[in-house]
Design brief:
Number of helices: 4
Order of helices and strands: EEHHHEEH
Distance between the termini: 41 Å
Structural class: mainly alpha
Largest sheet: 2 strands, antiparallel
Low-confidence stretches: 1-8
Strand content: 5-15%
Helix content: 40-55%
Shape: flat
Mean pLDDT: 77
Strand order of the largest sheet: 1-2
């Protein structure tokens, strides 16, 4: 791996910093998670909103249903968050790619393959709700 060096203004005496200084502290995560964000990927898609709203309704229903047991059972949001990626990829394969027009705006139920930004958006909404 080739490392680029540049002067880091935060380090004293303008010492050299390498590209690896920008990586996260956990090497396994740094190898899997992309370091560069692609702003051209869609985020607020029908799939993301549907996954979020359907999972909220399902989670609220199941937790309410299981609270009436003698020993209540709680289903955490992490189960829904883990299942969001395979469900999103399934929706990307099955939803139609036809474009629709509503109030002069064109949109598609399935704009592109399910991407990491949609999954992260789903996760952030779940964390915001908690």
């Amino acid at each position: 791996m080739v490392t680029k060096t540049h002067t880091n203004p935060e380090k004293p005496n303008g010492s050299k910093a390498t590209e690896n200084d920008d990586r996260g502290p956990v090497e396994e995560v740094a190898l899997v998670v992309p370091e560069i964000d692609d702003p051209s990927l869609p985020v607020m898609t029908f799939r993301a909103w549907f996954l979020y709203l359907a999972s909220c309704v399902l989670l609220i229903f199941l937790n309410t249903f299981f609270t009436y047991r003698t020993k209540p059972l709680t289903i955490s949001a992490i189960l829904i968050q883990i299942s969001a990626l395979p469900i999103g990829k399934f929706m990307a394969r099955t939803l139609p790619t036809t474009e629709y027009s509503l109030f002069g705006r064109r949109f598609s139920l399935n704009p592109e393959p399910f991407n990491i930004l949609e999954c992260n958006d789903f996760w952030l909404r779940k964390k915001w709700r908690e």
